Amino acid sequence: MSEQDALVVFTPSGRRGRFPVGTPLLQAARALGVDIDSVCGGRGLCGRCQVTVCEGEFSKHGISSRADSLSPVAENEQAYIRRRGELKPGRRLSCSSQLQGNCVIDVPPESQVHRQIVRKRAEVFDIELDPMIRLYYVEVQQPDMHLPTSDLRRLKEALDFEWRLENLWSDIRVVQEIQAALRTGDWKVTAAIYDDQRIIAVWPGFQSRIYGMAVDVGSTTIAAHLCNLQSGEVVASAGRMNPQIRYGEDLMSRVSYVMMNPGGNEDMTREVRQAINDLALDLATEAGIALTEIIEATFVGNPIMHHLLLGVNPIELGGAPFALATGDSVSGLQATELDLFIHPNARVYVLPCIAGHVGADTAAIILSETPYLTEELTLLVDVGTNAEIVLGNRERVLACSSPTGPAFEGAQISCGQRAANGAIERVRIDPDTLEPRFKVIGSDLWSNEPGFDAVVQKTGVTGICGSGIIEVMAELYLAGIITQDGIIDGSLAARSERIVADGRTWSYVLDQSDDRTLSITQNDVRAIQLAKAALYAGIRLLMDKLGVDSVERIGLAGAFGSHIDVKYAMVLGMIPDCPLENVKSVGNAASTGARIALLNKKARLEIEDQVQQVEKIETAVEPRFQEHFINAMAIPHKTDGFPHLRGRFTLPEPRFIERDDGSEGGGRRRRRRRRVA
Amino acid sequence: MSEQDALVVFTPSGRRGRFPVGTPLLQAARALGVDIDSVCGGRGLCGRCQVTVCEGEFSKHGISSRADSLSPVAENEQAYIRRRGELKPGRRLSCSSQLQGNCVIDVPPESQVHRQIVRKRAEVFDIELDPMIRLYYVEVQQPDMHLPTSDLRRLKEALDFEWRLENLWSDIRVVQEIQAALRTGDWKVTAAIYDDQRIIAVWPGFQSRIYGMAVDVGSTTIAAHLCNLQSGEVVASAGRMNPQIRYGEDLMSRVSYVMMNPGGNEDMTREVRQAINDLALDLATEAGIALTEIIEATFVGNPIMHHLLLGVNPIELGGAPFALATGDSVSGLQATELDLFIHPNARVYVLPCIAGHVGADTAAIILSETPYLTEELTLLVDVGTNAEIVLGNRERVLACSSPTGPAFEGAQISCGQRAANGAIERVRIDPDTLEPRFKVIGSDLWSNEPGFDAVVQKTGVTGICGSGIIEVMAELYLAGIITQDGIIDGSLAARSERIVADGRTWSYVLDQSDDRTLSITQNDVRAIQLAKAALYAGIRLLMDKLGVDSVERIGLAGAFGSHIDVKYAMVLGMIPDCPLENVKSVGNAASTGARIALLNKKARLEIEDQVQQVEKIETAVEPRFQEHFINAMAIPHKTDGFPHLRGRFTLPEPRFIERDDGSEGGGRRRRRRRRVA
Predict the structure, then answer these.
(1) Does residue A67 sit within a domain?
(2) Nearest-by-Cβ selection for A321 from B145, B325, B353
(3) How many whole angstroms separate alpha carbon B36 and alpha carbon A220?
(4) Quick one: where's region Disordered (chains A, B) (predicted)?
(5) Taking a C-beta distance cutoff of 8 angstroms, is the pair A503, A383 a contact?
(6) Which segments within B59-184 are labelled E, that is strand?
(7) What's A163-223 look like in SS3?
């Protein structure tokens, strides 16, 4: 190092050093350990090593930095520009620029190997891009009769020499294709390397892009995101119905199908795999890429979807003791082993399951929301036919599943329906007049606003979707129409025509037209009470285990969590008391977890490790579950105080009404209560 | 350890120790590091841990050993005997016998884990049984709702607890089958573990046998042996024609077929794999086992067969620089990846190739014959369409291939044919009368013995096979009918009617009937000269590289080597001079090498390592090859002295005859030689 050497400072890392004039900038960066990406190994092909020369006086560094501190634009930079278009102003390819004098060089985020994929929500960590499969461009020695090594051996030698990738294995399909690739590419090829260990694909010449898909296999829908594994960006998203629905709407009816139809699991396995193939094609089409450019896929799903995807008969999950065939992650599986037709050597990673009722989707939510890294006691709830519940912080994390049944999704509700245009999703009830107003999906107008009828003319008002059911129940309670015990108060029929007799119970008429009536019946209320009591009891059980009476943060996952108004969920007592501003939808966190595992290989080890440490609680064998369940039947709760909620809402005072429908809800015990508070 | 303890001495290892009375013998053996096999983990199921109590006074050990030094025959030994029949006299199951007093216990070879498979030939090492895939019997914990681990996890825990197998991975098909296996087997299963790392199969209950097949894929025939992986014995052998023959008899014509018919390699790949499937069925049928009990297969073959088996287009092997796609061993491949239908999770191992002309079959010969372990300079020759040549000892090993062409196999010879009933395989010619006698395959009589005509009536005398060609050429030379230069001496027509004019050259009539004449023509002699000159020149080239003029041991591999009379091969100058008693057939050493790799996993590493170290010589680029070739055209050789041979045979004095067939053999140079010595 001499005074003749040029001083270079890289930002944002601040790493600095002196190098002889003429040193390629990329080489200087590597010598200093500066994180700059490169696929082509410094040949000016990939354009990933772009940097910006900072121009001006940098007194902090004692450097006057100018554009001509680097060598003039070189031939291969010009060639790159001819192929790919102009670089951004001030940008150079660091592999093709030599140091001419002192300079300050900025490495933009997109040129860093381990760049961050920024997530929208503030409370979660960004994803660090560090994919399992990476591309490496090499020039391979031609064969020589004097030195008869194989083409594969020479490829391995080149990968070792240029990229320090040692002791590589290779897929048999790489062996089958390597000779054509080398000769077509004139001895220049791009290799895809799995985990720095295994050559899984070889393309002639320079291949700049590979993609991965992150798939959330739900019982109702299958959602998938296609990501560029070089940039981390989502380039396409798609969803499809799970075709297994024709074997049963919910999970247990699918397991029953297998019990009644031996071999039926194979049909369901075939159908879900076909749907994933269709989804892959949707994604590739949307992104304008070939299916064979998708070289990896990650999967999450509940245990039954997980087993059916893997070709495992889910029958053991249909009854106690709910034994998983495997809960371990499935790593490095060939996509062809699951009959997936993307790149023929594509790999599959399936996240670990937690227990027989708590699947890889919940593991993915944990990976996305990282309760194990937080100080705050965090509750994560994924509501579906079953609710998966996670509670914990950096000290301990617990998980369980609770059998809510499908009421929250609109099933078992007389006028319930899927979320679709025409479905009621928002409801308000005037506590004085007991008159309702509502919004339907597809319209921004309330039902009492001018123009509403015109807007909904096309779809009609067809039913109530999940979030609408939560709201109508909570509003009925807040308006005093249903009591804390969930009884529709028939005495109010005198005040409002909307309270109508329905056999020995009462109903509330939400909307009426010539050809149909949308009512909330006593049975509907009861169904929601049972579902929310099961959910709350599961949560309460985990709180017991931790010895806490409140939680600090609540995340609601899934489509349901995205549409629900959290305050109504709390009014209804679905979730425990908590400062309302700390209750948020976490979106499709399962899908996000699948995407994190796709983009970051260390995240796979992290979630595998966390899943081992999660304490699994089986609600069915917990003696206190029943007690919690009974207390949680009340709205919002029989015994828990909900101080934060009461700070925001005036909840009706408890009243007790004799119930006349002896058939449900433990009527006898209630009949003794005659007091109306 | 107290004087109350029992003293036990195990033979043949001599290991000894004291253990409390009541200690199970197997446990004592393990504590002392005595090599005793067990699959069932000491449950009296597998019967592999049998030992013999030695009865009598053993003054050497200071022990009086009696049958009642062990506990009486236990219930599970009786159960074993009921299932499997009586034990040999004095035998006990060591897992079920407890020490009662001092004793001497003999561990028979078949009870040792690393037992030796004895080979017939004295000069080679026995095979140590140490297969890649082993069986382990375990009892697995039942699932428990309080501890919701998966079935796979509990299987792994049992394998860890009982067998110290840690960090196991498993195939996806194991995941698919594990639940049924555990429940059918009442939580007792046998697992097949690959390389102590991966669970590849699970059977309900106790499974005692698994098999492997060792396959030599030759261009003409495919030979396979089925071995019991627990005992090492060959339980069935079978061979089939390579169906690729219809695309071309020899290797180069198959490569030409691919050149002319793009995609033709895929047809050949499909056909060879189908033939291997057929062979597997032949083997399983012969051994009375299910195809699914075959859980591993090892393969050897020349580079073109190797590539076609693996699904690699062999076209690059058809021309310089003869680049292999891969020469590395192929390890842990799933049999299904080669469309082989044995056990669905069966694994495949393909031995490494040495160079573009020197394949995995030659590697297998090296593994079988271990020249790299010998002091003696060893020459190994495998004669086929090409000859593969290996020369070396523990210092250095060299290998090359030489283009002999198919003359030695009877092709290009006017009356040549495959070895089959009716083919002449032995020939003698009386040097005085010039009359021949011969033997044909299928008869033990010489043609001049009484009864010969009757015996061969059915097949006729149809042609000459490879070994017969070598003999007739050598005998023609020894009888003085052909000269050192390979000219049939027409002047002898005066002495024998068997020398007949054939255009401008002469032929020797070996046998004549009404409808056909079997003659050796001048062209036949020339074809053999070219072939043997190529072989010898290749050998000589390797000798040059080592700076030697003779070799100490010669092994002739393959079917040709088994039938040839080595002294005639030396008379003809196919092989260099060597003490005749050190020239032997090594049988199908390629097949043996495949079997060694099947039975011993360390042998795989050994041959992979050796192949790296073998010096590959490419005859086509060696300047001296041509010179060696020309000198080797003479019989036995133009310049090399063959002292050992001359010590056993009186070779004719060199004579020179003007040749009249200017069309062949460098006639002009020869015409100058007029001297008859």
Answers:
(1) yes
(2) B145
(3) 56
(4) 656-677
(5) no
(6) 63-65, 91-93, 103-106, 116-117, 127-128, 133-139, 169-170
(7) HCCCCCEECHHHHHHHHHHHHHCCCEEEEEEECCCEEEEEEECCCCCCEEEEEEECCCEEE
Mutation target to probe the A interface, by most A beta carbons within 10 A, among B141, B150, B328, B358 is B150
Hey, what are A376's tokens?
Answer: 């705050």
Q: pTM, whole model, 2 decimals?
A: 0.89
- Give the residue from B242, B237, B245 showing the smallest Cα distance to B221: B242
Which tens digit of pLDDT belongs to each residue from B306-345? Answer: 999 999 999 999 999 999 999 999 999 999 999 999 999 9
Cβ of A179 and B325 within 8 Å?
Answer: yes
B632 — phi, psi (to 5°)?
-85, -5
- Strand B505-512 and strand B499-502: the pairing is antiparallel
Written as six digits, the tokens of A660 are: 């006349």
Under 8 Å between Cβ of B484 and B634: yes
The better pLDDT of the pair B363, A419 is held by B363
pLDDT of amino acid A459: 86
Taking only the tens place, the pLDDT of each residue in A29-47 is: 999 999 899 888 888 889 9
Both tokens of A513, joined, read 């037209």
Q: Reduced to 3 states, what is the DSSP secondary structure of residue B637?
A: coil
Are B294 and B212 in contact by the 8 Å Cβ rule? The answer is yes
- Tell me: do B136 and B41 sit in the same domain: no
Mean pLDDT, chain B, rounded, equals: 92
Residue B660 pLDDT class (50, 70, 90 cuts): low
Q: Give A321's contacts in chain B (Cβ within 8 Å).
A: 143-145, 148
As a whole number of angstroms, the distance between CA B307 and CA B359 comes to: 10
Cβ–Cβ below 8 Å for A143 and B323: yes
Q: Could you check whether the bond before residue B652 is cis, i.e. omega within 30 degrees of 0? A: no
Q: How many secondary structure helices (H) and strands (E) does chain B include?
A: 18, 31
CA dihedral B185→B190→B191→B195, nearest 10 degrees, is: 180
User: Looking at the predicted structure, is the pLDDT value of residue B71 above 60?
Assistant: yes
Nearest residue to B304 (alpha-carbon basis) of B241, B246, B258:
B258
Range of the domain at B569: 369-406+527-648
Residue A59 lies in a domain: yes
Which chain A residue has its CA at the smallest distance from B176's CA? A312
B522 domain residue, yes or no: no
Determine, for residues B150 and A620 on separate chains, whether the beta-carbon distance falls below 8 Å. no
Check A145 against B180: CB less than 8 A apart: no
Task: Verify that B438 and B491 share a domain, yes or no.
Answer: yes
Tokens of residue B207, six digits? 């499974």
pLDDT of residue B663: 44
Domains identified in chain B, total number? 5
Whole-number average pLDDT of chain A = 92
- The stretch B642-671 carries a mean pLDDT of 68
- Residues B342 and B380 both lie in one domain: no
Which residue stretches of A9-50 are H helix? Answer: 25-31
| The dihedral formed by the CA atoms of B167, B168, B171 and B172, expressed in degrees to the nearest 10 | -50
Question: Dihedral sign, CA of B585, B588, B590, B595?
Answer: negative
User: Nearest residue on chain A to B269, judged by CA atoms?
Assistant: A176
Q: Which helix (H) or strand (E) holds B471?
A: helix B466-478
Verify that B239 and B319 share a domain, yes or no: yes
Distance from CA of A425 to the nearest CA of B (A): 38
Q: Are residues B293 and B387 in the same domain?
A: no
pLDDT in tens, A480-501: 999 999 999 999 999 999 999 9
- Using CA atoms, how far apart are residues A440 and A490, in angstroms rounded to an integer? 28
Which whole number is the average pLDDT over B448-458?
91
Q: Kindly state whether residues A67 and A185 are assigned to the same domain.
A: no
Query: Nearest C-alpha of chain B: how many angstroms from A445?
Result: 49
Interval A127-182: pLDDT, tens = 999 999 999 999 999 999 888 899 999 999 999 999 999 999 999 999 999 999 99
Token output for A404? 């809510």
